[in-house]
Amino acid sequence: MSVIADRIGFAAGVSIPVIDLGPCLSGDDRASADAAREINDACEGIGFYFVRNHGVATALVERAFTECERFHSQPLDEKMKTRATGKIVGYLPLGGQTQRTSVHGKSVAPDRSASFYVRQEFATDHPDRLGAKPWVFDNRWPENLPGFREGALAYFDAMAGLGKLLLELQSIALGLPRDFMVSHEAFLPPTYNLRLLHYPPRDPAIEGQFGIGPHTDYSYTTILAQSNLPGLEILTPAGEWLEAPALDGHLLINNGDMCRRWTNGRYRSAPHRVINRTGETRYSVPFFIGPRVDVKIDAWPTCKGEGLPPPPEPLSFGEYLAEVNKKNYDLPAS
After folding, report:
1. Backbone angles phi, psi at 186, to 5 degrees
2. Cβ neighbours around 300 below 10 Å, total
3. Tell me: the pLDDT tens digits for 232-246?
4. Distance between start and end Cα atoms, the chain
5. For the chain, which has fewer Cβ within 10 Å, the N-terminal or C-terminal residue?
6. Total domain count for the chain?
7. Is the pTM for the entire model greater than 0.70?
8. Strand 212-215 and strand 272-274: pairing?
9. Whole-angstrom Cα distance, residue 59 to residue 50?
10. Which residues fall within 8 angstroms of residue 254, CB to CB, at 6 or more apart?
11. Is residue 139 included in any domain, yes or no?
């Protein structure tokens, strides 16, 4: 039986697949092949899909939202003690981001959202830290929130585990060995980024203001835990902005720009935006999975060759990030 559960309809001919990963977690090869096929269809279509029975405990997701709210509910002067400076790690206050590079809709004002960014932690004696690798960051933890660091890192680790499964299933979907991506130098190690997002109510006096303006994600894959409050909208292949529902116990997955590029356009990096029209405070917790910043690839082996479009020029994730971050983020130097 297919692992597809159902589809969440938006409009005629448009839907988001819902994929049950439970059988894959048990090691069922046939279930993994079925899930990979459904992931392939979703990635070639709208570019988003839900997963359920994904192995991430509900309590971990709930704690991530609790820690997100705890951080953002602090006075501004406390949050600013962890402000991101130079690199996108720590607190990015309201107005710190504007989607200036988007071709899917113009942001006329800074995004009405604030974020706290967490990166992978490396021990003081880890070879990558000792070697000053560019994917090693120093997190900026708040000192006045006991348990915050532990809660964020527990969720971080769970998302990294799920991300590994998704990369394996996508490898199968692309006709590659299951371990192709997770053992490829581009993902040794992956670059992870956890973002705890806070959306205040929209300011009705500013026409055209977004919580996050129309954009595509920069990384390879995103795992999103959504608030129960609406706000996320996806641009369909037909050019309609449609609201994504929040489903209890489900996580929402989408491709990023590196996935689109390294699949030679086969998989869609779907434009999306956030508009908080609810009049209430909204939170969300995306987890971004990217490749190493220093590995150049034109396209995966099965996405180029005779009968397929010419692949793009080889590009590293670091080269891509340097361009978009410079234009979209307003960070003090120190």
Report:
1. -65, -25
2. 23
3. 999 999 999 889 988
4. 56
5. C
6. 1
7. yes
8. antiparallel
9. 19
10. 47, 48, 49, 217, 221, 222, 224, 269, 270, 272
11. yes
